[in-house]
Each structure stands twice: as structure tokens, then as C-alpha cells.
Design goal:
The complex is a heterodimer. Chain A is an alpha/beta fold. In chain A, 34% of the residues lie in helices and 30% in strands. In chain A, the strands form three sheets. In chain A, strands 2, 3, 4, 6, 7, 8, 9, 10 and 11 form a nine-stranded mixed beta sheet that branches. In chain A, a hairpin with a 4-residue loop joins strand 9 and strand 10. In chain A, helix 10 packs across helix 13 and helix 11 crosses helix 12. The longest helix of chain A is centred in the last third of the chain and has 30 residues. By secondary structure, chain B is mainly α. Chain B is globular. Classes of the chains: A alpha/beta, B mainly alpha. At the A-B interface, helix 1, helix 7 and helix 11 of A face helix 6 and helix 12 of B.
Amino acid sequence: MKRVVLTLLATAMLAVLPGCRDRLNLEDITLVLMMGIDLDKDNNLVVYSSSPVFSKEAQEKNEVTQVNALSFRDSRGKLEGRVSALIGTGKLQNILISRKVLQQPGWPKLLDVFYRDSKTRNNARLVAVDGSVADIMYFTPPDKRRLSLHIAKLLDTAHMRNLVEETSLWEFHKQLFERGRTPDMTGLRKNDREVVADSSVLLDHEGLYVTAINLEETELLQILQKDKKSDLSLTLVLPEEQKKAKSQIKTGVISFYVLGIDRKVKTAYAGGKMHFSLDYKLDIRLTERLFAFDVQKDAPKLQTQIDEQLESQLKDLVAKLQTNKVDPIGLGLFARAYQYGAWKKVQNDWGEAFKKAEIKVNVHSRIVDMGEIQ
Amino acid sequence: MKKIDAFNPTMKQNRITNTQFILLIHSMQLGVAALSLPADLARISGTDGWIALFFGWMGSVIASLIIVQIMKKYPSGTIIELISHYFGKWIGRLATLTFVVYSAIYAYLILDRMVLLIQSWIMQQSQPYTLMLLFVVPAYLIVKGGVRIMGRYAEIVVFTSLWMLGVMLFLIKECNWLHLLPVLKEGWIPVIHTVPTTLLSFLGFEVVFFIYPHLEKKQHASVNVILANTYTLCIYLLLTLICFMVYSPDQITQFNNPVVSVVKIIEFRFLERFDIIMLTWYLLLISKTWIPALYMAAYCTKRLLVVGKPQLYIAVFLAGMWLTTYIWNPDWNESLDAFKWFSTIGIGIAYIFPLCLWGLLSVMLKFKRWQT
């Protein structure tokens, strides 16, 4: 008797299980790999989605759609009325944002759905597009794989070589709410033949577009941030060596890997402004040298030349950041950690305080390896 | 052969080892609160909140030691037998009733919160009562087995969950130590304001009231409660410090369950969405907080009503909980409010009650008349 009751009970409970309404078949999902937002001519928000098509009958392997919508989540229904199946953003790779959107106050609020809805992926890359998002979304280069995946790989590898900053949704959220630094993200543009990731976009505390820095500046920024990923290769023209050149080819060129970065930040507060002294110790390995030099004997001399050149470039970059009132280095974090009293006065407008701050940059390079030839 | 009564503390078959004792206490403590703890602390005292954890730990260690001292005075029974013994039948019944209500609400609130977590993170479209039904059968089977089975369950779950700590360590490369500096940025005042929150996060050691008589080596009880509290402290510290260093200080306060959200960023080439995997596994850890509470409720009801089998009471409680969810269906805000309201009672039962009882007993035992 007892056994019968138990069996009946167990069966009854099993019958409840299909009550879980969250089941979704894989073939009913359209995996959105890339989304984009832009403003059209009349300044209406346009949301783009790009998703792979797994049907053998389809000519194109990628499905791109656009709709006018109020927000990302508002676009979902409209997109679902157009794409093959139900929109799923759990595999989202890139979010393209046009510069026009980046200039609209309050645009970061549009990303709210990605943080609020537990079903989205937080590691999608945020990309600032110079030009029209549609150009990239509808671009189908014949010699590349699906553009959404191509862009993801392009950004990852470029970031690995420290050529662009890469910011995920998660990191952007973190940077946006960090009063001691300003956000940055990858800059992407399209020329006639391909998509090019060769700049980084700097934003202010509100997430608004301020300026862009090029590939070389990004490399230097990553030194300043002490955020070197894998190989960091720098090429400099040493003026002292260049003077001796007699050809059209710049023979003052030297290239090297930066193997390790050791950063020391000293902070002080005096005369109503912050003082930062950034001291970098770089271990470098020469990979290219277009002029004659006895490294074995005169290494310190070469190191001094490199130091001077790097220092001046880093100082130019810092000056550029300061005039634009953006601090992607995160010096505000050091100010908070070590000069808390002074920081509290300026924490609500760190950009302005950063502009006024006095920042010294010192570089001490050490050639640990001259390469395989003398 | 004598039939084993799983609800009888004096039976030899119901004895538990030191490890089981420690892990039972620890698992009562570590539950849903851990998921929101870093944000709760940060909302009060910013990135200094972790310091307050030590005070919470101190408080809970002291309270647990007092509980052990109380239980030593009547080692063969639980708190309700102890009270009946010293204060008479009626006060004993009153205490039993209090514990029934306390542990039943405790179990319900946590079970309901666990269901809300699943609903919010994994199955948004499913009904809470459907999800709750899934936990009813295993809970029944475990509680039916008594303290020893719960102890074994705690052992299995805790040891098989250790990998989660390892996964948390993957976040270290996202950490920025500067977030923690300067230490004590606003002085001690905000830290002291955080202490009540941390005291609450250690709630659960009151289970000692009920499992002490089951402990095989009672002479180790004091060391064991200290170990249990310290283990909980270590886990809280790890979670809190990692969250404080990964999130930026003004960002963490925006998250409801920062510990789950932070795991979202861990990805391997072959595995994404660690939050879902971790949360699903974490449900086992949460289940260990309300299952002993359910045992306490069933045990007290059995003692109060005398008649009937304990199995019946477990089933009634589970059915009651399911029915409450079916009818009331609390939302997140209601759940949060209920926790807030309940925590006041928790402080009373776990911290103030043992202190008063201990004082009372010590005074009473000074007079020979009371000694039996």
C-alpha cells in the first residue's frame, strides 16, 4: 500500500516537471553574434543584428537585419519579426556603437538590458565605429569568415599585441562607475577593402566621446596603464642616429620588444593640485636596428637615447589626455588610495583635477638582449 | 533489533563525528546571504566593509561558545529538553513553540529565496511553486534520516563544492588592490555600522542547540564551533575581498547578487556562463541551510505534540511551505523585507537568548536547590 502511494506521488511530481516553461529548442534560436546601434538621418535609433544561418539552402551564411527601436530590448520583438527564429543574446560577441550615438548624453543607459537581464553575456566587446554602423553590419568580405566572428578575432588579436584597447560590456560598466578613471574602447572603421581596428576611443566620465588615439598612442597608453598583454613591439626613430643618415630611408630606426614593465607611481598633493610621478622600468629586447652601434660597449648610451625618445612620446600622450580631461590610465585610483583627503575634494570631477595635475614621466630602459647579431 | 529512531538524540546510531558537526554548523551559516554580502557591506562602509567581518566572526564565536557552555549543563538532550529540565514543562513547551516558529520561518524564507534565485537567474518564465516542488522530495528524504544523514549530506556537499573556490581564484587576474586602499578611509565609524550586517551573516550556529547532544566527542565541541565559524569567515573574506577588488567601488553597490554576477566574466574556450553552473551547484549549498532548519522545526513539533511520526511532521511542513508559495508567492522585495524583519528575531534567538539563558543558568546552579 505504502509503495503504491509513493509511486503515485512520484509520478504526480514527474508530471509537474513540464511546467518549467523555459525550455527552448536550439533550432528555435537565432544566435545574435553582433549587434549595432546608430542614429539615422532623422536621429531615430536604429538597432542592427547579425546572426549566423545554419541552413544549407541559404546563399548567405549571415543574416543581418535592422529595425527602428527605442532601446535594445524594444528591438527584440521587432527583430524577431524579421529573423529566422527567436533572438538569443547569450553568445553576443560585439556591440557596435556609432560615434553619433557616443555623442548623445546618457547613451550608456541603453546598455542597461545587458546588465539587468541575466540571460545576456557580459563579455561582449564594445566597439566605437567611426562612420556608419550599417556599412560594417552589411559588409560581406569574400575572403573573410562571418564578419561578426572576424571582428571578434581581429579585436582580440590586435589587443593581444597592444594595438587597440578592448573593453567588454562588463569592463565598460566598471570603468564608467569608477570615478578615478575614464572609459576607453576599441575604435573600428571600414575602408574600401576591409574593416580596420587601428585606434582606441577615449570617453569622458559620462561615457561621451572625447577623442581617439591611434595605434602607436595606444601602445604607449598600455605602457602607462601597465596593461601589456603579449608582445609589445615599439619602433622609434632616434634623432641622434638619424642626423647621420644620408639616405631617404630613415636609418635612425630602432625596434624592440618591451618584455616587462615595472611601474612605480608616487603621489603627492601640493599647491591645490595632484602631483604624480610615474617611473617606468622597461626590459627591452632589440629586434631591429638600422644604424651601426656597439651595443656591447655603449649600451647605456643607447638606453639613454631610447629613454629620452620614449619619455617625450609618453609626455606628449599624457599632455593630450590632460587637455582632453580624460584619464584612461586610472591615476585617480592612485589618488584615492594614497591621497584620500585631497581626492575627496575632487572625486566628483576627476577629469578637471586630472587636467590640472602635474604628471612627471620617467623611463629607464634596460637592454637585456641585443638580438642574434652584433 | 531495536528500531532506529532518527529523531532520538540519545541513540548511538545518531551520533555525528567532529567533521560532521563542524560542517553542519558551517553549512547553516553559508547560504543565500553570501551571494549578496559584498554589496551589502559595500553599501554601508565602502571597501572597508571586509574589516567588519572579523567583528561578526568574533560575535558569533562568543555566542557559539556560550551555547556550548549551556548545552554542557544537560548534555544528553537538546535545548528544549534542557529548558524543560530546569524551568519546568510549560516554559519548556513555550520554548519549543518558539523554536518551531523560528525554524519553520527560517527554512521557508531561505527555500523561497533559493527558488527566487533560480527563477531570476535561470528560469525566468517558470512558476516558483513548480521549482519549489523539485526540492521537496530530497529535503524530505534527508530530514527523515535525522542529524547523522544531514551531517553526511553536509560533508558530501561541502567537499564536492570546493572547486568553486578554485574557480573564484580565476578572478584574481581581474583584481586591483588599489580599490582596498586606503584602509579605514573614513575611520572606524562606518565599519562599526556594518557589524550588525556581518553578525547576521553568521547566523546559523544556533543549530548547536539541537545537534550538540548528537556529537560523539563532546569535549571537542568548543574547538569545533570555533573551527566552523572560522571556516565560514574564510569563505566570506575570500568572496568579499575578490568582489571588492574586481568591481570598482561605486559599481558593486548596484548589484543585487555580486557574487553571482562576478562569475559571469569567467570564460573558458570550452565553457561559458559560469554563473549558471556555479549557481546551480550553489543550490546544494543553500539547501544545507534550510534542511537542518526544517529538521529543527520537525523535531520540536514532535516533542511538542508527542503523538505521530516525525515523517508526518516533515511532510506537513513541506506541504505548508509549498502551499504558502502557491498562495502568497512572495516577490523579491517581499523576500528582502521578510529577511530584514526575520533577522531581528535571529539576533534575539542566536545572540541574546543564549547570553540570557547562560546567565540565568549560572546563577541558578549556584543554589543547590536547583541542582539535580
